[in-house]
Amino acid sequence: MRWTAFPCVGTIVRMTEELECREHWQAIDQARNVARDYRLTVSRDLFDWIIVEREWGRIGSRGQSARDSFANDDVARRFVRGVRRRRASARNRIGVAYRSVT
Known about the structure:
Strands 1, 2, 3, 4, 5 and 6 form a six-stranded antiparallel sheet that branches. The radius of gyration is 15 Å and the shape is elongated. It has two helices and six strands. The chain has a single domain (11-100), classed as q64v53_bacfr protein fold (Single Sheet), CATH 2.20.140. By secondary structure, the chain is α+β, with helices and mostly antiparallel strands. The longest helix is centred in the last third of the chain and has 16 residues, at 73-88. It has helices at residues 73-88, 90-94, and strands spanning 11-14, 19-29, 34-44, 50-58, 64-70, 99-100. 21% of the residues lie in helices and 43% in strands. The relative contact order is 0.21.
């Protein structure tokens, strides 16, 4: 069994040959009319590429999504760290911090 070190806040599922990491955050402030949703999923495909899927938008709307694939683990880790760092800076940018949703 192979284990790839992607520290996750969300659920970690160990499978025979892949790691699946899912994180879900929300930033809500009714007084400022802020209701944002962000999902991050990291997994491996059949060709051993790392797939990073992101979905974001206003809660209750269709929102947007993006999918990135990486052959190199280090590049994928840097990308995921950058996504997490951006979510962590939300209080400075939008005035409301993202909180983990289970």
